[in-house]
Amino acid sequence: MNRRHGMMIGLAAAAAAVVVAGCASLQTDEADAAVLIKEFSPVDEYYIGRSVAATVLAQYKPSNDVALNEYVNMVGQVVAMASGRPEIFGGYHFVVLESDEVTAFAAPGGFVMVTKGLLKCCRSEDALAAVLAHEIAHIELRHGLYAVKQARMKRAFARNQMTDTMLIHGTRNVQQLNAQQFNLQMATMLGNTTFDITRKMIRSGYSRKAEEAADRSAVEILRKAGYDERAILDIFAVMKVKLSGDQRGFAMTHPAPVDRMEYVKPLVSADAGKSAPKARQDRFDEAVRGI
Amino acid sequence: MKRSIRSARHGILPGVLVVVLSLVLPGICADIGGKMLIQKRDCVIRTEPSFIAAAAGTLKYHDSVLIREEKGQWRRITSADGKLSGWIHSTALATREMSFNDAPAPAEMKVSSGEVGLASRGINAAVEEAFRAGNKDLNFSAVDKMEAFSVRTEALSAFARTGKLAGEGR
To answer: What ipTM score was computed for the predicted complex, to two decimals?
Structure first.
Protein backbone atom coordinates (compact mmCIF):
# COMPACT_ATOMS: atom_id res chain seq x y z
CA MET A 1 0.00 0.00 0.00
CA ASN A 2 1.49 3.34 -0.99
CA ARG A 3 1.01 6.67 0.78
CA ARG A 4 -1.71 7.82 -1.61
CA HIS A 5 -3.81 4.73 -0.96
CA GLY A 6 -3.27 5.19 2.75
CA MET A 7 -4.47 8.80 2.57
CA MET A 8 -7.59 7.86 0.61
CA ILE A 9 -8.45 5.11 3.06
CA GLY A 10 -7.90 7.58 5.87
CA LEU A 11 -10.21 10.15 4.23
CA ALA A 12 -12.88 7.53 3.56
CA ALA A 13 -12.70 6.41 7.19
CA ALA A 14 -12.99 10.00 8.38
CA ALA A 15 -16.00 10.61 6.14
CA ALA A 16 -17.63 7.41 7.38
CA ALA A 17 -17.00 8.48 10.97
CA VAL A 18 -18.68 11.85 10.35
CA VAL A 19 -21.73 10.13 8.81
CA VAL A 20 -21.97 7.65 11.69
CA ALA A 21 -21.62 10.44 14.25
CA GLY A 22 -24.28 12.42 12.41
CA CYS A 23 -26.66 9.46 12.42
CA ALA A 24 -25.90 8.80 16.08
CA SER A 25 -26.68 12.40 17.00
CA LEU A 26 -29.94 12.20 15.00
CA GLN A 27 -30.78 9.06 16.92
CA THR A 28 -29.92 10.89 20.15
CA ASP A 29 -32.25 13.75 19.13
CA GLU A 30 -35.04 11.25 18.51
CA ALA A 31 -34.28 9.47 21.78
CA ASP A 32 -34.25 12.84 23.60
CA ALA A 33 -37.59 13.77 22.05
CA ALA A 34 -39.07 10.40 23.05
CA VAL A 35 -38.03 11.01 26.66
CA LEU A 36 -39.46 14.55 26.68
CA ILE A 37 -42.75 13.48 25.10
CA LYS A 38 -43.34 11.23 28.12
CA GLU A 39 -43.48 14.36 30.33
CA PHE A 40 -46.81 15.31 28.74
CA SER A 41 -49.58 13.78 30.83
CA PRO A 42 -52.85 12.68 29.17
CA VAL A 43 -54.41 15.87 30.58
CA ASP A 44 -51.66 18.06 29.06
CA GLU A 45 -52.13 16.33 25.71
CA TYR A 46 -55.89 16.85 25.85
CA TYR A 47 -55.68 20.60 26.54
CA ILE A 48 -52.97 21.07 23.93
CA GLY A 49 -55.25 19.25 21.49
CA ARG A 50 -58.17 21.56 22.33
CA SER A 51 -56.05 24.62 21.62
CA VAL A 52 -54.71 23.15 18.37
CA ALA A 53 -58.26 22.27 17.27
CA ALA A 54 -59.50 25.75 18.25
CA THR A 55 -56.75 27.24 16.05
CA VAL A 56 -57.69 25.06 13.07
CA LEU A 57 -61.39 25.77 13.57
CA ALA A 58 -60.72 29.50 13.52
CA GLN A 59 -59.27 29.07 10.01
CA TYR A 60 -61.58 26.34 8.68
CA LYS A 61 -65.31 26.63 9.32
CA PRO A 62 -66.88 23.49 10.83
CA SER A 63 -69.84 22.00 8.96
CA ASN A 64 -73.30 22.24 10.55
CA ASP A 65 -74.52 19.16 8.69
CA VAL A 66 -75.61 17.08 11.70
CA ALA A 67 -76.24 13.84 9.77
CA LEU A 68 -72.86 14.04 8.01
CA ASN A 69 -71.00 14.73 11.25
CA GLU A 70 -72.84 11.89 13.01
CA TYR A 71 -71.87 9.48 10.23
CA VAL A 72 -68.21 10.53 10.24
CA ASN A 73 -68.16 10.15 14.04
CA MET A 74 -69.59 6.62 13.79
CA VAL A 75 -66.97 5.51 11.25
CA GLY A 76 -64.33 7.29 13.33
CA GLN A 77 -65.27 5.41 16.50
CA VAL A 78 -65.17 2.04 14.69
CA VAL A 79 -61.70 2.92 13.39
CA ALA A 80 -60.48 4.26 16.77
CA MET A 81 -61.56 1.05 18.52
CA ALA A 82 -59.31 -0.92 16.15
CA SER A 83 -56.30 1.39 16.61
CA GLY A 84 -53.34 0.85 18.94
CA ARG A 85 -54.67 3.54 21.25
CA PRO A 86 -58.45 3.13 21.39
CA GLU A 87 -58.71 4.85 24.76
CA ILE A 88 -57.55 8.45 25.13
CA PHE A 89 -58.23 10.95 27.93
CA GLY A 90 -61.23 12.77 26.47
CA GLY A 91 -62.14 10.23 23.79
CA TYR A 92 -61.93 10.67 19.99
CA HIS A 93 -64.09 13.36 18.34
CA PHE A 94 -64.55 14.11 14.65
CA VAL A 95 -65.83 17.09 12.66
CA VAL A 96 -66.26 17.89 8.97
CA LEU A 97 -64.82 21.20 7.70
CA GLU A 98 -66.52 23.37 5.09
CA SER A 99 -63.66 23.55 2.62
CA ASP A 100 -62.84 22.23 -0.84
CA GLU A 101 -59.19 21.89 0.12
CA VAL A 102 -58.15 18.23 0.23
CA THR A 103 -56.85 18.04 3.79
CA ALA A 104 -57.38 16.74 7.32
CA PHE A 105 -55.96 17.54 10.75
CA ALA A 106 -55.36 15.31 13.77
CA ALA A 107 -54.82 17.30 16.96
CA PRO A 108 -53.31 15.62 20.04
CA GLY A 109 -55.87 14.32 22.48
CA GLY A 110 -58.14 12.84 19.79
CA PHE A 111 -59.57 15.75 17.78
CA VAL A 112 -59.86 14.80 14.08
CA MET A 113 -61.02 17.28 11.43
CA VAL A 114 -61.56 16.43 7.75
CA THR A 115 -62.59 18.72 4.90
CA LYS A 116 -65.44 18.16 2.47
CA GLY A 117 -62.74 18.31 -0.20
CA LEU A 118 -61.16 15.16 1.27
CA LEU A 119 -64.53 13.46 1.73
CA LYS A 120 -65.15 14.01 -2.00
CA CYS A 121 -62.04 11.87 -2.68
CA CYS A 122 -63.76 8.93 -0.96
CA ARG A 123 -65.86 6.52 -3.01
CA SER A 124 -66.79 4.23 -0.13
CA GLU A 125 -67.03 4.04 3.65
CA ASP A 126 -63.84 1.97 3.56
CA ALA A 127 -62.01 4.89 1.91
CA LEU A 128 -63.34 7.29 4.56
CA ALA A 129 -62.20 4.80 7.20
CA ALA A 130 -58.74 4.84 5.57
CA VAL A 131 -58.58 8.64 5.90
CA LEU A 132 -59.66 8.53 9.55
CA ALA A 133 -57.31 5.62 10.31
CA HIS A 134 -54.37 7.66 9.02
CA GLU A 135 -55.33 10.63 11.21
CA ILE A 136 -55.88 8.45 14.27
CA ALA A 137 -52.48 6.87 13.66
CA HIS A 138 -50.88 10.35 13.86
CA ILE A 139 -52.49 10.76 17.30
CA GLU A 140 -51.47 7.25 18.42
CA LEU A 141 -47.88 7.95 17.37
CA ARG A 142 -47.98 11.43 18.99
CA HIS A 143 -46.67 13.16 15.85
CA GLY A 144 -48.31 16.41 16.94
CA LEU A 145 -46.45 16.48 20.26
CA TYR A 146 -43.18 15.67 18.50
CA ALA A 147 -43.64 18.93 16.59
CA VAL A 148 -43.14 20.90 19.82
CA LYS A 149 -39.64 22.38 19.85
CA GLN A 150 -37.40 20.37 22.17
CA ALA A 151 -35.87 23.47 23.73
CA ARG A 152 -39.36 24.68 24.63
CA MET A 153 -40.31 21.33 26.18
CA LYS A 154 -37.10 21.23 28.23
CA ARG A 155 -37.74 24.74 29.63
CA ALA A 156 -41.36 23.95 30.44
CA PHE A 157 -40.66 20.68 32.22
CA ALA A 158 -37.66 22.07 34.09
CA ARG A 159 -39.86 24.88 35.36
CA ASN A 160 -42.44 22.43 36.65
CA GLN A 161 -39.95 20.94 39.03
CA MET A 162 -39.96 24.27 40.92
CA THR A 163 -43.75 24.50 40.93
CA ASP A 164 -44.42 22.86 44.28
CA THR A 165 -41.86 25.07 45.96
CA MET A 166 -43.46 28.14 44.42
CA LEU A 167 -46.99 27.10 45.28
CA ILE A 168 -46.54 26.03 48.91
CA HIS A 169 -44.20 28.80 49.98
CA GLY A 170 -45.53 31.72 52.01
CA THR A 171 -48.92 32.86 53.26
CA ARG A 172 -52.18 32.00 51.52
CA ASN A 173 -52.17 35.38 49.71
CA VAL A 174 -48.66 34.76 48.44
CA GLN A 175 -49.66 31.28 47.34
CA GLN A 176 -52.69 32.69 45.49
CA LEU A 177 -50.55 35.26 43.68
CA ASN A 178 -48.03 32.58 42.80
CA ALA A 179 -50.80 30.33 41.50
CA GLN A 180 -52.06 33.10 39.20
CA GLN A 181 -48.53 33.75 37.99
CA PHE A 182 -48.02 30.04 37.46
CA ASN A 183 -51.19 29.77 35.36
CA LEU A 184 -50.08 32.73 33.22
CA GLN A 185 -46.68 31.13 32.64
CA MET A 186 -48.35 27.88 31.65
CA ALA A 187 -50.76 29.76 29.37
CA THR A 188 -47.76 31.19 27.50
CA MET A 189 -46.32 27.70 27.22
CA LEU A 190 -49.67 26.41 25.93
CA GLY A 191 -49.74 29.15 23.32
CA ASN A 192 -46.21 28.44 22.10
CA THR A 193 -46.82 24.68 22.07
CA THR A 194 -50.01 25.16 20.07
CA PHE A 195 -48.18 27.42 17.64
CA ASP A 196 -45.39 24.85 17.09
CA ILE A 197 -47.92 22.11 16.34
CA THR A 198 -50.36 24.02 14.14
CA ARG A 199 -47.58 25.56 12.09
CA LYS A 200 -46.22 22.08 11.37
CA MET A 201 -49.67 20.60 10.67
CA ILE A 202 -51.02 23.37 8.46
CA ARG A 203 -47.88 24.69 6.71
CA SER A 204 -45.12 22.13 6.39
CA GLY A 205 -46.73 18.84 7.37
CA TYR A 206 -45.08 16.05 9.34
CA SER A 207 -41.91 14.35 8.11
CA ARG A 208 -42.04 11.85 5.30
CA LYS A 209 -41.08 9.20 7.88
CA ALA A 210 -44.05 10.16 10.06
CA GLU A 211 -46.46 10.10 7.12
CA GLU A 212 -45.24 6.68 6.08
CA ALA A 213 -45.61 5.40 9.66
CA ALA A 214 -49.18 6.72 9.76
CA ASP A 215 -50.01 5.06 6.41
CA ARG A 216 -48.54 1.74 7.56
CA SER A 217 -50.47 1.92 10.82
CA ALA A 218 -53.65 2.81 8.92
CA VAL A 219 -53.45 -0.42 6.89
CA GLU A 220 -53.31 -2.46 10.12
CA ILE A 221 -56.14 -0.49 11.69
CA LEU A 222 -58.39 -0.98 8.66
CA ARG A 223 -57.70 -4.71 8.64
CA LYS A 224 -58.47 -5.00 12.35
CA ALA A 225 -61.68 -2.97 12.04
CA GLY A 226 -62.98 -5.21 9.26
CA TYR A 227 -62.62 -2.61 6.48
CA ASP A 228 -61.01 -3.41 3.13
CA GLU A 229 -57.45 -2.09 3.41
CA ARG A 230 -57.25 -1.79 -0.38
CA ALA A 231 -59.43 1.30 0.00
CA ILE A 232 -56.31 3.21 1.04
CA LEU A 233 -54.90 2.67 -2.48
CA ASP A 234 -58.23 3.73 -4.00
CA ILE A 235 -58.10 7.03 -2.20
CA PHE A 236 -54.47 7.65 -3.19
CA ALA A 237 -55.49 7.09 -6.83
CA VAL A 238 -58.27 9.69 -6.55
CA MET A 239 -55.99 12.12 -4.70
CA LYS A 240 -53.35 11.71 -7.42
CA VAL A 241 -55.80 13.21 -9.89
CA LYS A 242 -57.38 15.82 -7.60
CA LEU A 243 -54.11 17.11 -6.13
CA SER A 244 -52.25 17.59 -9.44
CA GLY A 245 -51.78 21.32 -9.84
CA ASP A 246 -53.04 21.99 -6.31
CA GLN A 247 -50.77 23.97 -3.99
CA ARG A 248 -52.91 23.70 -0.86
CA GLY A 249 -53.69 21.09 1.82
CA PHE A 250 -52.25 17.63 1.29
CA ALA A 251 -50.46 18.75 -1.89
CA MET A 252 -48.34 20.93 0.43
CA THR A 253 -48.13 18.81 3.58
CA HIS A 254 -48.06 15.16 2.48
CA PRO A 255 -45.88 13.00 0.22
CA ALA A 256 -47.21 12.65 -3.35
CA PRO A 257 -49.98 10.02 -3.64
CA VAL A 258 -47.84 8.11 -6.14
CA ASP A 259 -45.06 7.80 -3.50
CA ARG A 260 -47.52 6.74 -0.83
CA MET A 261 -48.96 4.05 -3.12
CA GLU A 262 -45.46 2.67 -3.58
CA TYR A 263 -44.83 1.89 0.08
CA VAL A 264 -48.42 0.91 0.91
CA LYS A 265 -48.96 -1.51 -2.01
CA PRO A 266 -46.71 -4.29 -0.59
CA LEU A 267 -48.58 -4.12 2.73
CA VAL A 268 -52.00 -4.63 1.22
CA SER A 269 -53.13 -8.15 0.33
CA ALA A 270 -53.88 -8.47 -3.39
CA ASP A 271 -57.19 -10.07 -2.66
CA ALA A 272 -58.42 -9.02 0.77
CA GLY A 273 -61.43 -11.23 0.17
CA LYS A 274 -63.69 -8.76 1.89
CA SER A 275 -66.64 -7.40 -0.01
CA ALA A 276 -68.44 -4.60 1.70
CA PRO A 277 -72.10 -5.37 2.49
CA LYS A 278 -74.55 -3.30 0.48
CA ALA A 279 -75.73 -1.61 3.69
CA ARG A 280 -72.26 -0.11 4.18
CA GLN A 281 -72.13 1.41 0.69
CA ASP A 282 -75.76 2.57 0.92
CA ARG A 283 -75.22 4.47 4.15
CA PHE A 284 -72.04 6.05 2.77
CA ASP A 285 -73.85 7.19 -0.40
CA GLU A 286 -76.69 8.58 1.72
CA ALA A 287 -74.32 10.45 4.07
CA VAL A 288 -72.20 12.14 1.37
CA ARG A 289 -75.04 12.94 -0.98
CA GLY A 290 -75.13 16.69 -1.56
CA ILE A 291 -71.67 17.45 -0.13
CA MET B 1 -6.93 -14.31 31.84
CA LYS B 2 -9.26 -16.24 29.48
CA ARG B 3 -11.28 -17.68 32.40
CA SER B 4 -11.83 -14.28 33.98
CA ILE B 5 -13.02 -12.82 30.65
CA ARG B 6 -15.50 -15.68 30.23
CA SER B 7 -16.90 -15.27 33.72
CA ALA B 8 -17.05 -11.49 33.23
CA ARG B 9 -19.10 -12.09 30.08
CA HIS B 10 -21.49 -14.37 31.99
CA GLY B 11 -21.83 -11.72 34.65
CA ILE B 12 -22.69 -9.03 32.15
CA LEU B 13 -25.08 -11.09 30.03
CA PRO B 14 -27.96 -11.47 32.50
CA GLY B 15 -27.73 -7.75 33.24
CA VAL B 16 -27.88 -6.94 29.54
CA LEU B 17 -30.83 -9.30 29.10
CA VAL B 18 -32.71 -7.58 31.91
CA VAL B 19 -32.08 -4.16 30.36
CA VAL B 20 -33.10 -5.34 26.88
CA LEU B 21 -36.22 -7.10 28.17
CA SER B 22 -37.27 -4.11 30.21
CA LEU B 23 -36.97 -1.98 27.08
CA VAL B 24 -38.86 -4.27 24.72
CA LEU B 25 -41.64 -5.39 27.01
CA PRO B 26 -44.75 -3.24 26.72
CA GLY B 27 -44.84 -0.20 28.99
CA ILE B 28 -47.85 -1.48 30.83
CA CYS B 29 -47.20 -4.74 32.62
CA ALA B 30 -50.48 -5.62 34.27
CA ASP B 31 -49.83 -8.20 36.91
CA ILE B 32 -52.96 -9.91 38.18
CA GLY B 33 -53.70 -8.36 41.53
CA GLY B 34 -51.69 -5.27 40.63
CA LYS B 35 -52.93 -1.73 41.18
CA MET B 36 -53.32 0.65 38.23
CA LEU B 37 -54.71 4.14 37.59
CA ILE B 38 -57.45 5.16 35.15
CA GLN B 39 -56.14 7.37 32.31
CA LYS B 40 -59.47 8.57 30.90
CA ARG B 41 -61.58 11.48 32.10
CA ASP B 42 -64.80 9.41 32.13
CA CYS B 43 -63.96 5.78 31.74
CA VAL B 44 -66.74 3.33 30.88
CA ILE B 45 -66.26 -0.08 32.47
CA ARG B 46 -67.85 -2.82 30.34
CA THR B 47 -69.62 -6.08 31.19
CA GLU B 48 -67.52 -7.87 28.56
CA PRO B 49 -64.12 -7.26 26.91
CA SER B 50 -65.55 -5.27 23.98
CA PHE B 51 -66.17 -1.60 23.21
CA ILE B 52 -69.70 -2.44 22.12
CA ALA B 53 -70.58 -4.38 25.29
CA ALA B 54 -72.97 -2.84 27.82
CA ALA B 55 -71.63 -0.50 30.47
CA ALA B 56 -71.23 -1.75 34.04
CA GLY B 57 -70.39 1.73 35.35
CA THR B 58 -67.88 4.57 34.99
CA LEU B 59 -64.68 5.62 36.74
CA LYS B 60 -62.79 8.91 36.77
CA TYR B 61 -59.23 9.92 35.89
CA HIS B 62 -56.69 8.62 38.43
CA ASP B 63 -59.22 6.32 40.12
CA SER B 64 -57.36 3.29 41.37
CA VAL B 65 -58.30 -0.24 40.23
CA LEU B 66 -57.11 -3.79 40.87
CA ILE B 67 -56.43 -6.15 37.95
CA ARG B 68 -58.29 -9.45 38.28
CA GLU B 69 -57.92 -11.02 34.85
CA GLU B 70 -56.27 -10.44 31.46
CA LYS B 71 -57.73 -11.28 28.05
CA GLY B 72 -55.60 -10.00 25.17
CA GLN B 73 -55.47 -6.23 25.56
CA TRP B 74 -58.42 -6.21 27.99
CA ARG B 75 -58.32 -6.24 31.78
CA ARG B 76 -61.04 -7.24 34.20
CA ILE B 77 -60.82 -4.84 37.10
CA THR B 78 -62.44 -4.02 40.40
CA SER B 79 -62.59 -0.45 41.67
CA ALA B 80 -60.69 0.47 44.84
CA ASP B 81 -63.92 0.57 46.89
CA GLY B 82 -64.88 -2.85 45.54
CA LYS B 83 -68.26 -1.60 44.27
CA LEU B 84 -67.57 -1.80 40.56
CA SER B 85 -66.25 -4.67 38.49
CA GLY B 86 -65.88 -5.07 34.75
CA TRP B 87 -63.65 -4.89 31.67
CA ILE B 88 -61.47 -2.06 30.43
CA HIS B 89 -58.97 -1.77 27.57
CA SER B 90 -55.34 -1.61 28.73
CA THR B 91 -54.78 1.74 26.99
CA ALA B 92 -57.10 3.27 29.60
CA LEU B 93 -54.70 2.24 32.38
CA ALA B 94 -51.25 3.20 33.66
CA THR B 95 -49.16 1.79 36.49
CA ARG B 96 -48.61 5.21 38.05
CA GLU B 97 -48.92 8.94 37.31
CA MET B 98 -47.71 9.71 33.79
CA SER B 99 -45.53 12.66 34.79
CA PHE B 100 -44.78 15.25 37.46
CA ASN B 101 -47.75 17.26 36.16
CA ASP B 102 -49.99 14.37 37.02
CA ALA B 103 -48.82 13.55 40.53
CA PRO B 104 -51.07 14.54 43.45
CA ALA B 105 -50.42 18.05 44.75
CA PRO B 106 -48.73 18.39 48.16
CA ALA B 107 -51.08 18.96 51.09
CA GLU B 108 -49.39 22.28 51.89
CA MET B 109 -50.77 23.81 48.68
CA LYS B 110 -53.42 26.09 50.20
CA VAL B 111 -54.65 27.46 46.87
CA SER B 112 -58.17 26.47 45.86
CA SER B 113 -58.74 23.93 43.10
CA GLY B 114 -59.66 26.66 40.61
CA GLU B 115 -56.49 28.62 41.19
CA VAL B 116 -54.18 25.85 40.08
CA GLY B 117 -56.86 23.96 38.26
CA LEU B 118 -57.79 20.79 40.13
CA ALA B 119 -54.39 20.57 41.80
CA SER B 120 -52.71 19.55 38.56
CA ARG B 121 -49.46 21.33 37.86
CA GLY B 122 -49.56 20.82 34.12
CA ILE B 123 -51.87 22.29 31.51
CA ASN B 124 -55.45 22.27 32.77
CA ALA B 125 -58.76 24.17 32.63
CA ALA B 126 -57.44 27.19 34.54
CA VAL B 127 -54.44 27.43 32.20
CA GLU B 128 -56.71 27.16 29.15
CA GLU B 129 -58.89 29.94 30.58
CA ALA B 130 -55.83 32.19 30.99
CA PHE B 131 -54.74 31.33 27.42
CA ARG B 132 -58.18 32.01 25.94
CA ALA B 133 -58.32 35.41 27.62
CA GLY B 134 -55.42 36.51 25.43
CA ASN B 135 -56.52 34.66 22.28
CA LYS B 136 -60.16 35.49 21.68
CA ASP B 137 -59.89 34.78 17.94
CA LEU B 138 -59.58 31.02 18.49
CA ASN B 139 -62.69 28.89 18.06
CA PHE B 140 -63.05 27.05 21.36
CA SER B 141 -66.84 26.96 21.11
CA ALA B 142 -66.48 24.76 18.01
CA VAL B 143 -64.21 22.44 20.01
CA ASP B 144 -66.78 22.29 22.82
CA LYS B 145 -69.40 21.40 20.21
CA MET B 146 -67.16 18.62 18.86
CA GLU B 147 -66.80 17.21 22.36
CA ALA B 148 -70.49 17.50 23.20
CA PHE B 149 -71.33 14.99 20.50
CA SER B 150 -71.02 11.42 21.77
CA VAL B 151 -71.76 8.10 20.14
CA ARG B 152 -74.01 5.81 22.18
CA THR B 153 -72.83 2.22 22.59
CA GLU B 154 -76.11 0.76 21.25
CA ALA B 155 -75.92 2.90 18.10
CA LEU B 156 -72.24 2.02 17.57
CA SER B 157 -73.00 -1.67 18.05
CA ALA B 158 -75.78 -1.53 15.45
CA PHE B 159 -73.54 0.43 13.06
CA ALA B 160 -70.77 -2.17 13.36
CA ARG B 161 -73.20 -5.06 12.96
CA THR B 162 -74.97 -3.61 9.89
CA GLY B 163 -71.64 -2.78 8.27
CA LYS B 164 -70.15 -6.20 9.16
CA LEU B 165 -67.27 -4.57 11.05
CA ALA B 166 -65.15 -6.08 13.82
CA GLY B 167 -65.79 -3.25 16.27
CA GLU B 168 -63.38 -4.50 18.88
CA GLY B 169 -60.10 -3.15 20.25
CA ARG B 170 -56.74 -4.87 19.73
So the answer is: 0.88
